[in-house]
Amino acid sequence: MPNIYQFFGGSHFAITWAEIRALQFYKRSKLEDCDKHLKICSFFDKFFWDYVIANTLLVYSNLSKEKVLDMFNFMGGSLKVASYAAQNKSLSKLIHDSLGGIVKSNLAGNHDINKHGSNEHSDDITKIKIRLNFYNFSKNDFETAINIIREQKKAYKQKNILIKFVGDINMPFVNTASSKKYLQKQIPEFNITFDDSKKLYVLTRTLGVQNFDLFETLEFNRPERDMKIGMMPIKLAFIMLNLANLKKNDGFWDPMCGVGTLIMAGILKKLYSYGSDVNFIALAKAKHNIDWLLKTGLTNSAKFRIFKFDIFRNPKNNKILRDIIRFGRFDAIVTEGYLGKPRKKPFVNKRQLNMQLREIEKLYSAFLKTVSRLIFPGKRVVFTVPIYKTIFNNKVSWVMPNIDINKHRYKIVKYNTGDLVWRNKKSNVARKLFILEKIK
Question: How many CB atoms lie within 10 A of CB 10?
Fold first, then answer.
């Protein structure tokens, strides 16, 4: 059976999609028989082997569930991952067949479906607990699904098989916290997603949910958080490292590391993590955060180094950088530079806006020039650039600094997933993600 995984996106789906494509869950040479097994494979992108349904992404992969979960645990964009179970154009048949499969597995004693107490036997009555979610359903389709489920439950009850749907079956889907609770209790959770364009229903079984406990701990419990230096979301840090195509034991450099968010994420991903900054206060805070990370027990080892460096200076004049690159250049450069002063309101003064834009343009011009000397062709530079909300003549718009990408021999890596902008609803400053690759 081919491996198809469903990734559920969050509020920045284009970025989530790019992250998944960058992680390369597929190997083309092993997937040539995809179309022979499943009709849905004919819809897949033939290069990335993925397909969008609503706010989710189906990915065809040769990787095992264990390997996918291992990678998923350090993804910043996807809220949940599930494995493919079935597809059908008939909702009734899909529910009938899927419930039949669950019942059959329980009666056969297959504890992979439901372990430790969920399958109870009393007076020859089999009790089965499951959770079922619905995505991209209209109100009428949802009501139809509920009626089909009720009919199926009655039919199985006559056979002394009680199927209990945990949670409120009248709620189309649950949040990730509830999904995590069901998984911990070993209650299987299934998801039915409707593809409106193909009039197709796809059934998947939840494998894991985003490690939001870890992310919240890193985001809010770390000792150093500074709005003036920068507040990169920890999820974005993991996304950027994944976009950089970094593998375990690779090394990256964050030349504007601030309070060390990317360095902490790199340590957890078992990367050689180097961070520098021109600001001694920022470096002290980064060291404090890293020390805290090691004390929490979230990792038992750390390969990192932080040091002072001015991005406007020649890297050849920095002894620490010379020592690092003596044994080989960095596998990637990943950073978020200065985003400008925190803004409670949009720009309304063009002079102030232009001053801010020139400052950012000068910084990133120096950054791209400096790091171009420290990576080999084919290696990546991933960074964010601020985009500012403006209001001129009662018209709202977003303005980005003019960054010359081609000046220092880079090409833009395109995943064709949409605009890679990280923007919160109430924020006056957004982030534009760039993925560059060094060329000869």
Answer: 16
The length of the chain is: 440
Each residue's pLDDT tens digit, 285-337: 999 999 999 999 899 889 999 999 999 999 989 999 998 888 788 999 999 99
Tokens of 234: 């920890």
3-state class of 119 per DSSP? coil
CA atoms within 13 A on the CB side of 375: 30
For residues 403 and 126, give the distance between their C-alpha atoms in angstroms, rounded to a whole number: 65
**pTM of this prediction?**
0.92
What pLDDT, on a 0 to 100 scale, did the predictor assign at position 113? 41
Query: CB neighbours (10 Å) of residue 216?
Result: 11
| Contacts of residue 297, Cβ cutoff 8 Å, sequence gap at least 6 | none
C-alpha–C-alpha distance, residues 255 and 382, integer Å: 12
Alpha carbon 150 to chain centroid, angstroms: 36
Residue 358 CA: distances (Å) to CA of 323, 338, 350: 33, 12, 12
Where does CATH 3.40.50.150 sit in the chain?
212-438
Question: In the chain, which residues have pLDDT < 70?
Answer: 1-2, 27-33, 35-37, 109-123, 227-230
Tell me how far apart the alpha carbons of residues 211 and 205 are, in angstroms, rounded to a whole number: 18
Q: Are 8 and 80 in contact (CB under 8 A)?
A: yes
Q: What are phi and psi of 274, to 5 degrees?
A: -115, 130
What's the pLDDT at 274? 97
CATH architecture under which domain 3-209 falls = 2-Layer Sandwich (3.30)
Residue 116: the pLDDT is 39
DSSP 256: T
Alpha helices in 251-279 (DSSP H): 261-268
The CA-CA-CA angle for residues 92, 98, 104, to 5°, reads 130
pLDDT of 300:
84
* Residue corresponding to tokens 């039949």: 100
Is the domain covering 212-438 a CATH 3.40.50.150 domain? yes
Let me know: does 243 contact 17? Beta carbons within 8 Å.
no
pLDDT in tens, 94-118: 999 999 988 888 877 644 444 433 4
